[in-house]
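User: Quick sanity check before I run a bigger batch. Here is a single chain. Can you write out its predicted 3D structure?
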Amino acid sequence: MNTTLSPVQLHSTTHPPQPVDTALDYEPRRVGLIDRLALHVGVALITWGRRPHGESRERRANRVEQQLARLERERVAERTLRLLEPLR
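Assistant: Done. Predicted structure follows.
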């Protein structure tokens, strides 16, 4: 195969010069008091909504299961200890 391909031309990232506007024809917009207050209230509501809401139902169920399992282990350990104890 003796065919050579021409190199791919990449697009130039330089843009034509833009006119510089030295005179500002507008006043920059300022955020009003009501808008700032609404923003603060919105952020406060979001953070309040994401706070932890006490113990979940699943966590309580796990805690009860763990407590019951611990009591069962203690009961088995005490029974084993009493069975292995020499008679008096």
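The mean pLDDT is 84.

User: Great, the batch can go ahead then.
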